[in-house]
């Protein structure tokens, strides 16, 4: 299973249920990696999308504890066990965990590939991702050249 995330220098990923920054090339990378695939997210992540709608051209699986929650066009699961049972229907290489913080934390042990956009800036944030640079289980297997968006530098890393 894969995960895909954009982090700042402190491995922050969000603030007030929004991304820290929108970088067009990062959004394009996300789209290219996940289109036609399965994306796994929490309820808050789904609600942060335009009009709270699932992502087009993907199988959207939403993990929520709220048994009454409804999301048109998404598969809803309510526990890790139910999620894992649902994910058995798909090729592991086609599954991308896309957030938010609690879902990343819960599913990180089940992932074997991480696509990380590292942004060379520090933002005000309230949600963080595990610092893969400081774990023995994860090592960088590839990285892009430096990218820039206005005066913002960032890199794509593969773990």
Description:
This protein has 159 residues and is an alpha/beta fold. It has one domain (2-158): 3-Layer(aba) Sandwich (Dihydrofolate Reductase, subunit A). 20% of the residues lie in helices and 32% in strands. Strands 1, 4, 5, 6, 7, 8, 10, 11 and 12 form a nine-stranded mixed β-sheet that branches. It has a three-stranded antiparallel β-sheet with strand order 3-2-9, with no helix packed on it. β11 and β12 (152-158) form a beta hairpin.
Topology:
Layout: E1 2-7, E2 12-15, E3 18-19, H1 24-34, E4 38-42, H2 43-48, E5 59-63, E6 75-77, H3 80-87, E7 95-99, H4 101-107, E8 113-119, E9 127-128, E10 142-143, E11 147-149, E12 152-158
Parallel strand pairs: 1-7, 1-8, 4-5, 4-7, 5-6
Antiparallel strand pairs: 2-3, 2-9, 8-12, 10-12, 11-12
In short:
This protein has 159 residues and is of the alpha/beta class.
How many independent structural domains?
1
Number of E-state strands: 12
- CATH homologous superfamily? Dihydrofolate Reductase, subunit A
Uncertain regions: pLDDT < 50 for 5+ in a row?
Answer: none
- Rg over alpha carbons: 15 Å
Beta-strand portion reads 25-35%
Structural class: alpha/beta
Chain oligomer state = single chain
First and last CA, distance: 12 Å
Report the mean per-residue pLDDT as an integer.
Answer: 97
So, CATH architecture? 3-Layer(aba) Sandwich
Share of residues in helices: 10-25%
- The CATH class designation is Alpha Beta
- Count of separate DSSP helical elements: 4
The helix/strand order is EEEHEHEEHEHEEEEE
CATH T-level fold name: Dihydrofolate Reductase, subunit A
